[in-house]
Amino acid sequence: MARLDYFAPGVYVEEIERGSRPIQGVSLSVAGFVGFTEDIRGDAQLFEPQLITDWSQYLECFAKPGSDGFTDFGAYLPFAVRGWFENGGGRCWVVSLGTQLPLPSSQKTTTEERPALTEVKTVSQKPSLSFSIKPEEQENGRINVLVQPDDPLPTDDPDEEAFDTGEYFKLTLMQGENILKEVRTVEGQEQEVDAVYRHLSMSAEPEAGVFVETALQESQYINIEVLSSEGMPLSR
Predict the structure, then answer these.
(1) Which helix (H) or strand (E) segment is 62 a member of?
(2) Short-list 109, 171, 177, 114, CA closest to 145
(3) Which of 41, 122, 170, 208 is the most buried if burial means most Cβ atoms within 10 Å?
(4) DSSP β-bridge partners for residue 145
(5) Crossing angle for the helix pair 76-86 and 55-62, nearest 10 degrees?
(6) Pairing of strands 196-201, 210-211
(7) Residue 84: how many CB atoms within 10 A of its CB?
C-alpha cells in the first residue's frame, strides 16, 4: 500500500507488510587448503596463504619444475587441490606447512651419525645462507658448518609438545672431526660450550625456534648472512 501523506491532523490507517525478508546468498565458491607440498617457489611463501586459480598455477607455486605436483611421501594437499579443480571448483587459497613431514623421534638423525654436509639452499634450490670466517679466526684454518634437522623449542608446559613444522635445523661448527668450543653466557655465567646452535629457523619470528641470523650473532668463529626470502625453509 502506498504511504499516506500526513498534511492534516486526524486518524490515519496504514497497512504494513510484515513478511520475513529473504537472506541474501553468500558465495561458497572459494575454498582453503592447508598442508604439505612438494615445493615452495615463485610467489608462494611458507605459512602464507597463496591465491590459486587453476592447477597450472598450483604447479608453478608448489611443485618442482616438470613435476606432477604430488609429493613422494603422499601428502594429501595436492590431491585435495587437484580434486577441487577437477570437480569444477574455482579460486582457492593454499597454505604450505613445508615440504617434508616431521620425522618420528626414532628416525631423527643423532649427532654421532654426523651426516655429510648439506648444500645450504632453500627448497626451491636458491641460495639461502652465506657463511664467512671472522677475520680474527681465519689464521686458525678451515671451519666446517654441519647442517642437520632439529626439533622446535620445548614448550613451557611439560605435558604439551611443540608442533614440528619441519622447518627447524641446527648448525654445528667443526674443524676436522672435532666440534669447536666457544665461550657463551649461560644463566649469567660465562661457560665453555660446544659450538652448536639448535632450534634454528629461517623465519625472523618463528613460533617455536630461534631466527638463525640472531642466534649466530654471538658466534666466536663465523658471520652469517640470510640470502633467501624470509621464511623459506632449507632443503633437506
Answers:
(1) helix 55-62
(2) 171
(3) 122
(4) 173
(5) 160
(6) parallel
(7) 19
Mapped onto helix, strand or coil, the DSSP state of residue 151 is: coil
Which grid cell is 140? 686458525
Q: How confident is the model at residue 200 (pLDDT cuts 50, 70, 90)?
A: confident
Q: 234 - beta bridge partners?
A: 122
d(CA 232, CA 121): 9
The amino acid at residue 84 is W
What letter does residue 12 receive in the DSSP assignment?
-
Pairing of strands 178-179, 196-201: unpaired
**Alpha carbon distance 209, 203 (integer Å):** 9
Contact between residue 202 and residue 232 where contact means Cβ atoms under 8 Å apart: yes
pLDDT digits (tens, 9 = 90+) for 125-174: 566 778 888 888 888 888 888 888 888 888 877 778 877 777 788 989 98
| DSSP H/E element including 213 | helix 212-215
**Cα–Cα dist 11/78, whole Å:** 70
